[in-house]
Target: Nucleobase-ascorbate transporter 1
Amino acid sequence: MLGTSVMIPSMLVPLMGGTDADKIRVIQTLLFVSGINTLLQALFGTRLPTIVGGSFSYVIPILYIIRDSSLQQIPDPHERFLQTMRAIQGALIIASSLQIIIGYSQLWGIFSRFFSPLGMAPVIGLVGLGLFDRGFPAVGNCVEIGIPMLLMLIGLSQVVYYYYFFSQKDTPIFERFPVLICVTVIWIYSVILTAGGAYSHRPTRTQNSCRTDRANLISSAPW
Model:
């Protein structure tokens, strides 16, 4: 949930014409709404032990809204951000209302009988492939951070977990928190590289992707 709450606004807000201050406000709003949704789901919903956060399935439709010609013609970036955000909010409200109607009317349960793994796997694959050019090339912008993150995530979730000591039921740490552990470790690693001057003489694009002091999220937050 934390990853989607940060990654989705970081990817979409600049395309909408938003600044770092707009980005941090969107992140704060997404975190707050995710907490409210999780609380409602735990009290009145299915009561599953899950955290309700942002979904990457909406990224592709949102990108089409952002690239709408009527919005792209707005000269002022801040005004374009506001108008685009309103359009996205309206679209999400309509889409969510439709999902609520389908869920409470039990139509999804009726139609789900006709779905099979052979039919759903291509749909999920298309969503993932549609986001490939947005996610994976970003690893190449900072290979010294991206590659260790990928290797560590694969190692913790797919290799270390199956060792006898870590596979015990009383220590399911790497089964439940591989992403959180990897993000924490790699962030500390990035801070060390930044403080050590590893990127002092690198190109601006590399510094923006690798340095931990270029996001401006903490300084732009309206505390």
Remarks:
- Residues 77-104 form the longest helix (28 residues).
